[in-house]
Amino acid sequence: MAYAHGGELPYHTDFPSLSQPPELQMLYMFQKAPNNGGLSMFVDGFYIAELMREKYSDAFKILTETPIEFIEEGYDIHERDGKNFKFIFDMASKHRTIKLDESGNVIKIQFGNAMRSWFFDIEPEKIQDVYRALKIFTSLCYAPENQLIFPLENGDTVLWANTRCLHARSGYQSTAENNRSIFGCYFMWDIVKSRIRVIRDKLNLKENQNAL
């Protein structure tokens, strides 16, 4: 969806269709959109969850207890050794929008309305309550005081926690001379922490440094 058109992208986490989505996401701006379009937009999902816990406790309870299915299907074209390969995917996962640990702390956010299944596997009388809870969640994401909006300049890189922060993008119009181009990749925290430990060992850093 993000690469198919220049329209505005709504707030989401990447790959809500996976039970274990990538935990970190990085984007590199190679060529920005003209006329200040394609602005990067971020919101702290943990903060939104805590706002709901404080002000909309019923909606918070629904999103922490109701599994919602997310689906992504289609194909990508990947080039390898000068040849194009078609990679077909059909991903689906059902989970709570807000995940809590045993102590009730928010530990994970997974959401993307464009990827949400139309089907709710719940009692019919609860469906409207789920929609109301999702509307509150989305409205809080778009509250001006909760958003961070800025342009990525050519050469800029942004890194964030995909299972905590939701991201979006304002619309833009590319031209033949200036076609927006951005590169992205994903990481898991375990791999990043492993790399940090290896670097610490090579640099003989003090043992009393905080461990990851």
UniProtKB/TrEMBL annotation:
- Span of domain TauD/TfdA-like: 8-186
UniProt-recorded Gene Ontology molecular function terms: oxidoreductase activity
Mind telling me which Pfam families this protein's record contains? Answer: TauD (PF02668)
Q: Keywords in alphabetical order, please.
A: Oxidoreductase
The superkingdom listed in its UniProt entry is: Eukaryota
Q: Got a GO cellular component term for this one? A: mitochondrion
Q: Which InterPro entries match?
A: AlphaKG_dependent_hydroxylases (IPR050411), TauD-like_sf (IPR042098), TauD/TfdA-like (IPR003819)
In the record, biological process GO terms are: carnitine biosynthetic process
Instruction: Give a yes or no for keyword Ion transport in this entry.
Output: no
**Protein name according to UniProt:** TauD/TfdA-like domain-containing protein
Q: Which organism is it from?
A: Panagrolaimus davidi
> Which lineage is the organism of this entry classified under, starting from the top rank?
Eukaryota, Metazoa, Ecdysozoa, Nematoda, Chromadorea
